[in-house]
């Protein structure tokens, strides 16, 4: 059982010690990672994904339950503690959705019956339904992303979930985050999206490849996130309407614009 | 001295990975000499020279680059010894992937590109199956699920391989490879042997025959129905 993940600080892009020397993330917590592009957000996520032991260029060290993970823990996908949803979701494998999920379930030691569940769940997150017989390579960006969210939730059901810029995928992000955060997982979300950032419990601020500081989300910010979600919902609904060829008139913008 | 033989598909990032590895070896005060074997052209030697590593280029031209590398190993070892290097690193552009250039005591490193599709590990043969370490590059371009399937396929072909996921751009994973190099055995020319035989091809094509008619060919010939024959004197 994973109760806690600890990031011990390393060095930034310029070889200076990064200001934050230790971050403890407990079971059930959602952490955000924010910062401008190129500030090292994805590298931080990669360090956690690999359970780095001062052997990456940041020289960070990751502890699980205050202990160093074993080599087996770090490499065997069946024991893998980390499920990652990366920015890149290009499918290059020349196979169908069904074949792909079956193979992946085998790698992770999961039962074949997962495959249908994954597809069902994916189809709640994306507009155009995905079929088992579809070739992987024809899936759209949003469909691929939805499929991977469902895969992470069901097949790669790991206690640590890393999510890299989910907002770019054109899927329902709040639902996706809900699906992924599950029960008692450790979740880290890399994001530029203020709504997602304010949904987290704490956020690590990155700069020049180093962790600069940790900001605890205030109760007021959490309230704001809910308000901002309304704008997001409005836009999502509008997008659906546009997609279905409807004419958009008479929307309520009162209070949103001044 | 230790010898590391690095083989891999073109464009998989062998040189980029090695540059990061060499930098971290140098940080730990190790010295290395690099030999780059290619077929027709390379400018990778500049990348190694730029970071201050003695580099030799060998162009095999119309000879199989792996055969060429093997015939020249003795000279390469001597040259690296004259440089007082702790490591001789041979980077070779394998052509057909039918052979494996690794010798018994070298550290055999196979670099393979994760974007080449999950069936590639099943296709490439001894250069993957006899390697000590398989470095998987470009994993950041695909999903974690695809990476895991790719890894499983490698282990099907080479269950004993140590797999390192590396990134030639960021240098991720390269430190781990450097650490494996430091742990590898010493090279000894007298007892060096190839881990896998080179492909069978002693025929008229090898000496420049360009006509395709059956009647022009001599040597050890294998037909598409599996029948193998020797034709000649």
UniProtKB/TrEMBL annotation, chain A:
Superkingdom of origin organism: Archaea
SMART domains assigned: AAA (SM00382)
Keyword field contains Transport: yes
Start and end residues of each ABC transporter domain: 2-234
Any GO molecular function: ATP binding
Keywords for this protein: ATP-binding, Nucleotide-binding, Transport
Signal peptide: none
Entries under Gene3D superfamilies matching the protein: P-loop containing nucleotide triphosphate hydrolases
Pfam family, one: ABC_tran
Keyword field contains Glycoprotein: no
UniProt cross-references to InterPro entries, sorted A to Z: AAA+_ATPase (IPR003593), ABC_transporter-like_ATP-bd (IPR003439), ABC_transporter-like_CS (IPR017871), P-loop_NTPase (IPR027417)
PANTHER family given in the database record: OSMOPROTECTANT IMPORT ATP-BINDING PROTEIN OSMV (PTHR43117)
Family listed: Belongs to the ABC transporter superfamily.
Name this protein carries in UniProt: ABC transporter ATP-binding protein
Species of provenance: Methanothermobacter tenebrarum
Organism phylogeny: Archaea, Methanobacteriati, Methanobacteriota, Methanomada group, Methanobacteria
From TrEMBL, chain B:
GO biological process, one term: protein maturation
Gene3D superfamilies assigned: P-loop containing nucleotide triphosphate hydrolases (3.40.50.300)
Domain CobW/HypB/UreG nucleotide-binding residues, every copy: 3-164
Superkingdom of the source species: Archaea
GO molecular function, one term: zinc ion binding
Pfam families given in the database record: cobW (PF02492)
InterPro entries: CobW/HypB/UreG_nucleotide-bd, Hyd_mat_HypB, P-loop_NTPase
Full protein name: CobW/HypB/UreG nucleotide-binding domain-containing protein
